[in-house]
What does this fold into?
Amino acid sequence: MPLVLVGLNHRTASVALREQMASAGCALDGAVLDAHPGLNALPHDHRHTAGIHESVILSTCNRLEIYATCGAPEEGVSAIIGYLSGQQGLGPDQLRPHLYILENEAAAEHLMRVSCGLDSLVLGEPQILGQVAEAFAQAQGAGMSGLLLAQLFSRAIHAGKRARNETGISRHTTSISHVAVRLAREQLGDLHNRRVLIVGAGEMAEIAAVAVHGEGVRHLTFINRTYGRAEQLAYRFGGRALNWYHLSRALAEADLVISATGAPHAVIYRDDLARVLPHRSRSPLVIVDVALPRDVEPEVSQLSGVLRFDIDDLNGTVDANLAQRQAAIPAVESIIQQELDEYLSWQRSREVVPVLVDLRRKVETVAACELEAALRRLDGADQETEAVMRLLTHRIIGKLLHEPTVRLKGEAVNGNGIVYADALRELFDLGGETADVQVLAERNGFHA
It folds into this structure.
């Protein structure tokens, strides 16, 4: 079954477009959860036309990727693009320039590179492996991931774990939140006496708290719509927690704001911030928005005394440990090749399964017919004799089919599976039960 990947990431699409498509990804996730097991997240007419059988949706702040198996790759890709563009009121031709479309081996290799952190904004960043695993788990829970994608994602996750355990790709790594703190330090200098506000209380916010705490920040405030979560982080990092309705007050007091909520819309607006600025005694105000969709309205950049940065601005931030992790890339690529070879070998071995099933079915049908005929000729045979004959028949079938099964799978791994499978079908007249087998079965009163 052909594999396709339709995706966009921080290299192919602006943060504004990724923000748009993130909501499409959420819509797809919701559709997946509502889908009947075995169906696809796409609308029924798209599924039927494209013949999409399995799908996994990987949606993060830096990428939206849809992996799918489909009987007709071109139709499957068109259906996915049509659905994504339709969700945002875009024409397919408007979206296509920002997409990468990969098939089969190239799509599988890409997923493994993503899982190993080679395709991330921050090389080797640790969060992506968990995000890949979570995407796969959600697809499994919704009945969307079948045998092929289960094998692919299992291999990719294994590759990611090996890369982190066997190489230095994740040593001294920095998350996006760490890069955000580094950027803030470039703007404000020593953060020790700066007042830092962290908006949000999820994973990204927690990582940002670790980063600023490591800078020796003494004045740290957490604000979140769920006060209890902000309070937990404040207790852990020695800061204070505020209720959400104190956001304006917190902005007025802060030197640095790191915003990392999971809100589907902006939470810091230009007009609200403009009313706060006259009450500030400190300047400038640095705001780093690491959320997607963005937490901070882009128009905030128009305000005097405010420096606003978003995820795309983090691309140019110097990573002091990058050279060390780059040195690990060849070792990671070797792991990827090993895992990819294992996956492709498994996939090629699957090509010959149908012919092996047909061969066993035919042999078992013939053997069963002949066994029933023999037992009738041995009229009066006791149960022990009959049991011995049935066991003998079963063992003969197993021993006869073992060698061709092993050899055919071996040839499949070497890329010759189709040729040998076709030869086997021709030699044994396979393709379901043949007329001869049916006649034999009916003659002996056996119904397969």
Notes: The longest strand covers residues 52-60. The radius of gyration is 30 Å. The CA atoms of residues 192 and 215 lie 6 Å apart.
